[in-house]
Amino acid sequence: MGDLSEECVESETLPKDWDKRPVKVLVASNFDSVAYDRDKDVLVKFYYPTCKHCKQLEPTYKKLAELYKGRDDVVIAQFNGHKNDLPVELHGYPTLKLFKKGSNRVVDYKGPRTLEDLSAFMYSNGVSPPYDAGNEQWNCCRCCTPS
């Protein structure tokens, strides 16, 4: 784990509603406790506010978060790399990393930035689809659609 010491790490202020939004807000001070929660699969988008590619990904990422909202075992989050010291090594923005529940293994996402591909990535890494029999919104792709 990152072992971030609050006294030497730059962290923006954590919004009071950080965990009430579909896309949860991570800052340096809460990163370890959320990303390395062994009871949750946590997908983190590391972004830079002025990055063109980060802005292009935002609507798709919000849709993914909407699909998984209400799930206690899955967190879709974002981390502002401009206002917080980075807890992990990055090679560019945006970067997506899945922190696996149970093992805390980190899986880097390197695929296309579509809702279908992001959903397939989650599913292929053991995250069950966001199925709700009364809500067809989750049915975004064929990768995780029950037959």
From TrEMBL:
Enzyme class, UniProt record, top EC level: isomerase
A GO cellular component annotation in the UniProt record: endoplasmic reticulum
Catalytic activity line of the entry: Catalyzes the rearrangement of -S-S- bonds in proteins
Domain of life: Eukaryota
UniProt GO BP: protein folding; response to endoplasmic reticulum stress
Pfam families reported in the protein's UniProt record: Thioredoxin
Keywords: Disulfide bond, Endoplasmic reticulum, Isomerase, Redox-active center, Repeat, Signal
Keyword presence, Repeat: yes
GO molecular function, one term: protein disulfide isomerase activity
UniProt-listed Gene3D superfamilies: Glutaredoxin (3.40.30.10)
Domain (Thioredoxin): residue spans on this chain: 1-127
Keyword Repeat appears in the UniProt entry: yes
UniProt-listed CDD domains: PDI_a_PDI_a'_C
Record EC number: 5.3.4.1
Recorded family membership: Belongs to the protein disulfide isomerase family.
Protein name as catalogued: protein disulfide-isomerase
UniProt organism field: Rhynocoris fuscipes
